[in-house]
Amino acid sequence: MSSHQQHGSFSSLKRIPADFSVSALIVGLIATMVSYAGPLLIVFQAAKAANMSDALLSSWIWAISIGSGLTAIVLSIRYRTPVIMAWSTPGAVLLVTSLSVYPFSDAIGAYLFSAVIITLLGVSGLFSTIMRYVPPAITTAMLAGILLSFGVQVFVSLQELPTLALPMILCYLLAKRWMPRYAVVFSLLVGLIAAFLLNRFELGGIQVALVQPIFTLPTFSLDAIIGLGIPLCIVTMASQNAPGISVLQADGYDTPASPLITTTGVASIVLAPFGAHGINLAAITAAICTGKEAHPDPSKRYIAGIACGAFYLVFSMFGATIASVFSAFPKELIAVIAGLALFASLSSSLASAMSDMSRRESALITFLVTISGISIAGIGAAFWGLVAGVIANLLLSGDVRKWRAIGRTKA
User: Nearest Cα to 192, choosing from 26, 24, 35?
Assistant: First the structure.
Protein backbone atom coordinates (compact mmCIF):
# COMPACT_ATOMS: atom_id res chain seq x y z
CA MET A 1 0.00 0.00 0.00
CA SER A 2 1.09 3.50 -0.61
CA SER A 3 1.47 5.80 2.32
CA HIS A 4 -0.95 8.67 2.87
CA GLN A 5 1.15 9.99 5.68
CA GLN A 6 3.27 13.10 5.48
CA HIS A 7 5.90 13.24 8.18
CA GLY A 8 6.24 16.71 9.52
CA SER A 9 7.16 18.82 12.48
CA PHE A 10 5.01 20.78 14.85
CA SER A 11 5.23 23.68 12.40
CA SER A 12 2.35 21.89 10.67
CA LEU A 13 0.11 23.02 13.54
CA LYS A 14 -1.01 25.91 11.36
CA ARG A 15 -2.43 23.40 8.87
CA ILE A 16 -4.95 22.10 11.39
CA PRO A 17 -7.62 24.80 10.78
CA ALA A 18 -7.47 24.21 7.02
CA ASP A 19 -7.64 20.41 7.44
CA PHE A 20 -10.40 20.51 10.06
CA SER A 21 -13.70 18.81 9.24
CA VAL A 22 -16.90 18.19 11.16
CA SER A 23 -16.88 14.54 10.07
CA ALA A 24 -13.43 13.99 11.61
CA LEU A 25 -14.55 15.70 14.81
CA ILE A 26 -17.65 13.50 15.10
CA VAL A 27 -15.73 10.33 14.29
CA GLY A 28 -13.25 11.25 17.03
CA LEU A 29 -16.15 11.68 19.43
CA ILE A 30 -17.63 8.31 18.42
CA ALA A 31 -14.28 6.61 18.99
CA THR A 32 -14.11 8.15 22.46
CA MET A 33 -17.68 7.10 23.20
CA VAL A 34 -16.93 3.50 22.20
CA SER A 35 -13.89 3.48 24.50
CA TYR A 36 -15.87 4.71 27.49
CA ALA A 37 -19.01 2.74 26.77
CA GLY A 38 -17.26 -0.62 26.61
CA PRO A 39 -13.62 -1.06 27.73
CA LEU A 40 -13.99 1.33 30.66
CA LEU A 41 -16.69 -0.85 32.17
CA ILE A 42 -14.12 -3.65 32.42
CA VAL A 43 -11.98 -1.29 34.50
CA PHE A 44 -14.96 -0.87 36.80
CA GLN A 45 -15.30 -4.64 37.09
CA ALA A 46 -11.63 -4.98 38.03
CA ALA A 47 -11.92 -2.19 40.62
CA LYS A 48 -15.01 -3.78 42.12
CA ALA A 49 -13.34 -7.20 42.32
CA ALA A 50 -10.40 -5.62 44.18
CA ASN A 51 -12.66 -3.56 46.49
CA MET A 52 -10.93 -0.41 45.26
CA SER A 53 -12.04 2.92 46.69
CA ASP A 54 -13.91 5.41 44.50
CA ALA A 55 -10.99 7.84 44.85
CA LEU A 56 -8.44 5.33 43.53
CA LEU A 57 -10.82 4.30 40.73
CA SER A 58 -11.32 7.91 39.71
CA SER A 59 -7.53 8.44 39.66
CA TRP A 60 -7.13 5.28 37.55
CA ILE A 61 -9.66 6.53 34.98
CA TRP A 62 -8.01 9.96 34.94
CA ALA A 63 -4.59 8.43 34.33
CA ILE A 64 -5.58 6.18 31.41
CA SER A 65 -7.72 8.94 29.88
CA ILE A 66 -5.15 11.72 30.02
CA GLY A 67 -2.41 9.36 28.85
CA SER A 68 -4.48 8.23 25.87
CA GLY A 69 -5.46 11.82 25.06
CA LEU A 70 -2.02 13.44 25.20
CA THR A 71 -0.26 10.70 23.24
CA ALA A 72 -2.98 10.64 20.58
CA ILE A 73 -2.76 14.42 20.06
CA VAL A 74 1.05 14.56 20.00
CA LEU A 75 1.52 11.59 17.66
CA SER A 76 -1.36 12.51 15.33
CA ILE A 77 0.16 15.98 14.84
CA ARG A 78 3.72 14.67 14.59
CA TYR A 79 2.95 12.12 11.86
CA ARG A 80 -0.21 13.68 10.39
CA THR A 81 -1.79 10.27 10.85
CA PRO A 82 -4.85 9.34 12.95
CA VAL A 83 -2.88 7.68 15.76
CA ILE A 84 -5.52 6.60 18.28
CA MET A 85 -4.57 5.54 21.78
CA ALA A 86 -6.45 3.66 24.44
CA TRP A 87 -5.89 1.69 27.61
CA SER A 88 -5.21 -2.02 27.51
CA THR A 89 -8.60 -3.76 27.35
CA PRO A 90 -7.18 -7.31 27.64
CA GLY A 91 -5.00 -5.94 30.42
CA ALA A 92 -8.12 -4.76 32.25
CA VAL A 93 -9.68 -8.19 31.72
CA LEU A 94 -6.56 -9.71 33.28
CA LEU A 95 -6.92 -7.39 36.27
CA VAL A 96 -10.49 -8.50 36.94
CA THR A 97 -9.17 -11.81 38.24
CA SER A 98 -5.67 -10.84 39.43
CA LEU A 99 -5.74 -7.30 40.88
CA SER A 100 -7.22 -8.49 44.15
CA VAL A 101 -4.40 -11.02 44.60
CA TYR A 102 -1.64 -8.42 45.16
CA PRO A 103 -1.26 -5.31 47.32
CA PHE A 104 -2.12 -2.26 45.23
CA SER A 105 1.42 -0.84 45.48
CA ASP A 106 2.78 -4.18 44.18
CA ALA A 107 0.33 -3.97 41.29
CA ILE A 108 1.65 -0.47 40.51
CA GLY A 109 5.16 -1.93 40.50
CA ALA A 110 4.02 -4.62 38.05
CA TYR A 111 2.50 -1.93 35.82
CA LEU A 112 5.86 -0.13 35.81
CA PHE A 113 7.72 -3.33 34.95
CA SER A 114 5.38 -3.98 32.02
CA ALA A 115 5.73 -0.38 30.80
CA VAL A 116 9.53 -0.52 30.91
CA ILE A 117 9.62 -3.73 28.85
CA ILE A 118 7.23 -2.23 26.27
CA THR A 119 9.40 0.90 26.07
CA LEU A 120 12.51 -1.23 25.47
CA LEU A 121 10.71 -3.15 22.71
CA GLY A 122 9.91 0.17 21.08
CA VAL A 123 13.36 1.73 21.50
CA SER A 124 15.19 -1.37 20.29
CA GLY A 125 13.01 -1.61 17.17
CA LEU A 126 12.45 -5.34 17.77
CA PHE A 127 8.68 -4.95 17.51
CA SER A 128 9.00 -3.13 14.17
CA THR A 129 11.40 -5.75 12.85
CA ILE A 130 9.01 -8.59 13.60
CA MET A 131 6.06 -6.74 12.09
CA ARG A 132 7.95 -6.25 8.81
CA TYR A 133 8.02 -9.99 8.26
CA VAL A 134 4.29 -10.55 8.73
CA PRO A 135 2.52 -10.41 5.33
CA PRO A 136 -0.07 -7.61 5.02
CA ALA A 137 -2.72 -10.17 4.01
CA ILE A 138 -2.38 -11.81 7.42
CA THR A 139 -2.47 -8.60 9.45
CA THR A 140 -5.52 -7.32 7.55
CA ALA A 141 -7.22 -10.69 8.01
CA MET A 142 -6.60 -10.42 11.75
CA LEU A 143 -8.06 -6.92 11.71
CA ALA A 144 -11.12 -8.14 9.81
CA GLY A 145 -11.61 -10.87 12.41
CA ILE A 146 -11.47 -8.30 15.21
CA LEU A 147 -13.96 -6.01 13.48
CA LEU A 148 -16.42 -8.71 12.43
CA SER A 149 -18.21 -8.97 15.76
CA PHE A 150 -18.87 -5.23 15.72
CA GLY A 151 -20.49 -5.48 12.31
CA VAL A 152 -22.59 -8.44 13.43
CA GLN A 153 -23.77 -6.54 16.52
CA VAL A 154 -25.48 -3.98 14.27
CA PHE A 155 -27.97 -6.65 13.23
CA VAL A 156 -28.16 -8.30 16.63
CA SER A 157 -29.25 -4.89 17.93
CA LEU A 158 -31.79 -4.76 15.12
CA GLN A 159 -33.46 -7.79 16.66
CA GLU A 160 -33.14 -6.56 20.24
CA LEU A 161 -34.38 -2.99 19.71
CA PRO A 162 -35.65 -2.55 16.12
CA THR A 163 -37.31 0.82 16.80
CA LEU A 164 -33.86 2.26 17.52
CA ALA A 165 -31.58 0.23 15.25
CA LEU A 166 -33.71 0.24 12.08
CA PRO A 167 -33.94 4.05 11.72
CA MET A 168 -30.17 4.29 12.29
CA ILE A 169 -29.39 1.67 9.64
CA LEU A 170 -31.81 3.18 7.10
CA CYS A 171 -30.41 6.66 7.74
CA TYR A 172 -26.88 5.34 7.25
CA LEU A 173 -27.73 3.68 3.93
CA LEU A 174 -29.57 6.72 2.56
CA ALA A 175 -26.86 9.11 3.69
CA LYS A 176 -24.24 6.77 2.23
CA ARG A 177 -25.88 7.28 -1.15
CA TRP A 178 -26.42 11.03 -1.02
CA MET A 179 -23.92 12.34 1.56
CA PRO A 180 -21.48 9.48 2.33
CA ARG A 181 -19.09 11.67 4.28
CA TYR A 182 -21.72 12.33 6.95
CA ALA A 183 -23.44 8.94 7.00
CA VAL A 184 -22.18 8.05 10.48
CA VAL A 185 -22.92 11.54 11.81
CA PHE A 186 -26.54 11.49 10.65
CA SER A 187 -27.01 7.94 11.91
CA LEU A 188 -25.77 8.99 15.36
CA LEU A 189 -28.18 11.95 15.43
CA VAL A 190 -31.09 9.72 14.44
CA GLY A 191 -30.09 7.24 17.13
CA LEU A 192 -29.99 9.92 19.82
CA ILE A 193 -33.40 11.24 18.77
CA ALA A 194 -34.89 7.74 18.68
CA ALA A 195 -33.43 6.88 22.10
CA PHE A 196 -34.90 10.09 23.53
CA LEU A 197 -38.36 9.44 22.02
CA LEU A 198 -38.28 5.87 23.25
CA ASN A 199 -37.26 7.04 26.73
CA ARG A 200 -34.23 4.75 26.68
CA PHE A 201 -31.79 7.10 28.41
CA GLU A 202 -31.13 6.20 32.06
CA LEU A 203 -30.01 9.48 33.55
CA GLY A 204 -30.82 8.88 37.21
CA GLY A 205 -27.41 7.55 38.23
CA ILE A 206 -25.28 10.34 36.77
CA GLN A 207 -23.19 12.34 39.25
CA VAL A 208 -20.72 15.04 38.27
CA ALA A 209 -17.44 15.48 40.17
CA LEU A 210 -13.91 16.59 39.27
CA VAL A 211 -11.11 14.09 39.64
CA GLN A 212 -8.34 14.25 42.26
CA PRO A 213 -5.37 12.14 41.06
CA ILE A 214 -3.74 9.98 43.72
CA PHE A 215 -0.04 9.07 43.60
CA THR A 216 0.80 5.58 44.88
CA LEU A 217 4.44 4.81 45.63
CA PRO A 218 5.21 1.56 43.78
CA THR A 219 6.64 -1.47 45.50
CA PHE A 220 8.07 -4.46 43.69
CA SER A 221 7.48 -8.14 44.40
CA LEU A 222 8.58 -11.07 42.28
CA ASP A 223 5.12 -12.63 42.54
CA ALA A 224 3.41 -9.54 41.15
CA ILE A 225 5.98 -9.10 38.38
CA ILE A 226 5.64 -12.72 37.25
CA GLY A 227 1.91 -13.07 37.84
CA LEU A 228 0.81 -9.64 36.65
CA GLY A 229 3.60 -7.60 35.04
CA ILE A 230 4.76 -10.14 32.44
CA PRO A 231 1.24 -11.24 31.36
CA LEU A 232 0.17 -7.58 31.17
CA CYS A 233 3.10 -6.81 28.87
CA ILE A 234 2.35 -9.80 26.62
CA VAL A 235 -1.38 -9.18 26.23
CA THR A 236 -0.84 -5.46 25.64
CA MET A 237 1.71 -6.02 22.89
CA ALA A 238 -0.06 -9.00 21.32
CA SER A 239 -3.69 -7.98 21.64
CA GLN A 240 -3.46 -4.17 21.37
CA ASN A 241 -0.25 -2.86 19.81
CA ALA A 242 0.02 -5.49 17.06
CA PRO A 243 -3.60 -4.98 15.88
CA GLY A 244 -3.14 -1.22 16.30
CA ILE A 245 -0.24 -1.21 13.83
CA SER A 246 -2.30 -3.44 11.52
CA VAL A 247 -5.14 -0.91 11.53
CA LEU A 248 -2.80 1.84 10.34
CA GLN A 249 -1.27 -0.41 7.69
CA ALA A 250 -4.66 -1.55 6.44
CA ASP A 251 -5.62 2.04 5.64
CA GLY A 252 -2.32 2.78 3.93
CA TYR A 253 -0.36 4.53 6.70
CA ASP A 254 3.28 3.45 7.06
CA THR A 255 3.85 5.30 10.31
CA PRO A 256 6.95 3.80 11.97
CA ALA A 257 5.95 1.49 14.78
CA SER A 258 8.95 2.01 17.07
CA PRO A 259 8.25 5.62 18.12
CA LEU A 260 4.57 4.83 18.63
CA ILE A 261 5.34 1.86 20.89
CA THR A 262 8.05 3.82 22.71
CA THR A 263 5.67 6.71 23.37
CA THR A 264 3.01 4.40 24.82
CA GLY A 265 5.63 2.83 27.07
CA VAL A 266 6.91 6.16 28.37
CA ALA A 267 3.36 7.42 28.98
CA SER A 268 2.59 4.22 30.89
CA ILE A 269 5.71 4.65 33.05
CA VAL A 270 4.77 8.22 33.96
CA LEU A 271 1.14 7.46 34.75
CA ALA A 272 1.46 4.03 36.39
CA PRO A 273 1.79 5.50 39.92
CA PHE A 274 -1.60 7.18 39.40
CA GLY A 275 -3.19 3.82 38.55
CA ALA A 276 -2.73 3.49 34.76
CA HIS A 277 -2.28 -0.18 33.95
CA GLY A 278 -1.14 0.59 30.40
CA ILE A 279 -1.48 3.05 27.52
CA ASN A 280 -1.31 1.47 24.08
CA LEU A 281 -2.32 1.76 20.46
CA ALA A 282 -6.04 1.35 19.92
CA ALA A 283 -7.39 -1.17 17.42
CA ILE A 284 -11.18 -0.99 17.29
CA THR A 285 -11.50 2.73 17.92
CA ALA A 286 -8.53 3.39 15.63
CA ALA A 287 -10.34 1.67 12.77
CA ILE A 288 -13.22 4.10 13.28
CA CYS A 289 -10.88 7.06 12.76
CA THR A 290 -8.66 5.77 9.95
CA GLY A 291 -11.49 5.06 7.48
CA LYS A 292 -13.28 7.21 4.91
CA GLU A 293 -15.90 8.28 7.45
CA ALA A 294 -13.31 10.57 9.02
CA HIS A 295 -12.46 12.30 5.72
CA PRO A 296 -12.28 11.31 2.03
CA ASP A 297 -8.69 12.58 1.96
CA PRO A 298 -6.50 10.20 4.04
CA SER A 299 -3.97 12.97 4.70
CA LYS A 300 -6.63 14.91 6.63
CA ARG A 301 -7.88 12.07 8.84
CA TYR A 302 -5.31 12.94 11.49
CA ILE A 303 -7.84 15.53 12.68
CA ALA A 304 -9.90 12.59 13.99
CA GLY A 305 -6.91 11.53 16.09
CA ILE A 306 -6.53 15.02 17.51
CA ALA A 307 -10.28 15.22 18.20
CA CYS A 308 -10.30 11.83 19.93
CA GLY A 309 -7.36 12.90 22.09
CA ALA A 310 -9.03 16.21 22.95
CA PHE A 311 -12.23 14.47 24.04
CA TYR A 312 -10.14 12.12 26.20
CA LEU A 313 -8.59 15.14 27.92
CA VAL A 314 -11.96 16.76 28.58
CA PHE A 315 -13.49 13.57 29.89
CA SER A 316 -10.43 12.72 32.00
CA MET A 317 -11.22 15.56 34.40
CA PHE A 318 -14.42 13.86 35.48
CA GLY A 319 -12.96 10.44 36.23
CA ALA A 320 -15.59 7.92 37.28
CA THR A 321 -18.42 10.23 36.26
CA ILE A 322 -17.78 9.44 32.59
CA ALA A 323 -18.70 5.78 32.82
CA SER A 324 -22.05 6.65 34.38
CA VAL A 325 -22.76 9.09 31.54
CA PHE A 326 -22.07 6.60 28.80
CA SER A 327 -23.80 3.79 30.65
CA ALA A 328 -26.93 5.97 30.44
CA PHE A 329 -26.93 5.46 26.65
CA PRO A 330 -28.82 2.38 25.46
CA LYS A 331 -26.33 -0.35 24.64
CA GLU A 332 -27.99 -0.89 21.27
CA LEU A 333 -27.19 2.70 20.24
CA ILE A 334 -23.51 2.24 21.05
CA ALA A 335 -23.42 -1.14 19.28
CA VAL A 336 -25.09 0.14 16.12
CA ILE A 337 -23.08 3.35 15.75
CA ALA A 338 -19.79 1.54 16.42
CA GLY A 339 -20.63 -1.16 13.88
CA LEU A 340 -21.73 1.31 11.20
CA ALA A 341 -18.61 3.41 11.74
CA LEU A 342 -16.51 0.28 11.17
CA PHE A 343 -18.26 -0.95 8.01
CA ALA A 344 -15.72 0.70 5.69
CA SER A 345 -12.73 -0.64 7.64
CA LEU A 346 -14.22 -4.13 7.79
CA SER A 347 -14.94 -4.29 4.05
CA SER A 348 -11.52 -2.91 3.07
CA SER A 349 -9.78 -5.32 5.47
CA LEU A 350 -11.62 -8.32 4.02
CA ALA A 351 -10.89 -7.21 0.47
CA SER A 352 -7.20 -6.64 1.23
CA ALA A 353 -6.83 -9.93 3.09
CA MET A 354 -8.27 -11.94 0.19
CA SER A 355 -6.68 -9.99 -2.66
CA ASP A 356 -3.35 -11.87 -2.49
CA MET A 357 -4.08 -15.26 -4.06
CA SER A 358 -0.85 -16.80 -2.80
CA ARG A 359 -1.74 -16.04 0.81
CA ARG A 360 -5.52 -16.30 0.69
CA GLU A 361 -5.66 -19.56 2.66
CA SER A 362 -3.27 -18.27 5.32
CA ALA A 363 -5.39 -15.12 5.60
CA LEU A 364 -8.52 -17.24 5.93
CA ILE A 365 -6.97 -19.24 8.78
CA THR A 366 -5.98 -15.99 10.50
CA PHE A 367 -9.51 -14.66 10.11
CA LEU A 368 -11.17 -17.83 11.44
CA VAL A 369 -8.90 -18.16 14.46
CA THR A 370 -9.39 -14.48 15.30
CA ILE A 371 -13.19 -14.69 15.19
CA SER A 372 -13.15 -17.92 17.22
CA GLY A 373 -12.58 -15.92 20.40
CA ILE A 374 -10.13 -18.48 21.83
CA SER A 375 -7.88 -17.46 24.70
CA ILE A 376 -4.72 -19.38 25.55
CA ALA A 377 -2.50 -18.47 28.51
CA GLY A 378 -4.54 -15.29 28.96
CA ILE A 379 -3.69 -14.07 25.45
CA GLY A 380 -6.62 -13.30 23.17
CA ALA A 381 -7.63 -14.67 19.78
CA ALA A 382 -6.17 -11.77 17.76
CA PHE A 383 -2.63 -12.80 18.67
CA TRP A 384 -3.25 -16.49 18.05
CA GLY A 385 -4.85 -15.66 14.72
CA LEU A 386 -1.67 -13.82 13.78
CA VAL A 387 0.48 -16.76 14.90
CA ALA A 388 -1.69 -19.29 13.07
CA GLY A 389 -1.60 -17.24 9.88
CA VAL A 390 2.18 -16.81 9.95
CA ILE A 391 2.73 -20.54 10.56
CA ALA A 392 0.26 -21.48 7.83
CA ASN A 393 1.97 -19.09 5.42
CA LEU A 394 5.40 -20.56 6.18
CA LEU A 395 4.12 -24.11 5.70
CA LEU A 396 2.22 -23.29 2.52
CA SER A 397 4.92 -21.12 0.92
CA GLY A 398 7.98 -22.85 2.34
CA ASP A 399 9.70 -19.48 2.43
CA VAL A 400 11.54 -19.15 5.73
CA ARG A 401 14.34 -16.92 4.46
CA LYS A 402 12.75 -13.72 5.73
CA TRP A 403 12.33 -15.13 9.22
CA ARG A 404 15.94 -16.30 9.28
CA ALA A 405 16.91 -12.72 8.54
CA ILE A 406 15.07 -11.27 11.55
CA GLY A 407 17.92 -11.90 13.94
CA ARG A 408 20.38 -10.27 11.53
CA THR A 409 18.28 -7.22 10.67
CA LYS A 410 18.44 -3.97 12.56
CA ALA A 411 15.26 -2.07 13.18
Answer: 26
